[in-house]
Design a protein that fits this description.
- It is a single chain.
- The chain contains two helices and five strands, in the order ββββαβα.
- The model has no long low-confidence stretch (mean pLDDT about 90).
- The protein is of the alpha+beta class.
- The two termini are about 15 Å apart.
- It is globular, with a radius of gyration of 14 Å.
- About 25% of the residues lie in helices and about 25% in strands.
């Protein structure tokens, strides 16, 4: 599965920081972010359960351009 890499949080040291990818083969965005704390999870649970195979993560707004670039790549990808 080749991932298209769009970047890491520019305000971290580059290791193990929030990251954005796009998987064109599966038509999916891939995000690495900070794990949600209990307060955020509780707030998210107000709209429904979070399955065991899913997670809530945070990404800083300074990564918006990388996310936009990943969205553009998704729009150019073949329709699944």
């Amino acid at each position: 599965m080749p991932l298209l890499f769009f970047g890491k949080d520019p305000e971290t040291n580059g290791d193990h920081s929030p990251t954005v990818w796009f998987d064109a083969e599966k038509g999916e965005f891939v995000f690495q972010g900070w794990k949600a704390d209990e307060e955020l999870q509780a707030e998210c649970l107000k709209t429904g359960a979070i399955p065991d195979h899913e997670a809530v993560v945070r990404l800083p707004v300074r990564m918006a351009q990388m996310i936009r670039e990943a969205l553009d790549a998704a729009e150019r990808a073949p329709v699944r």
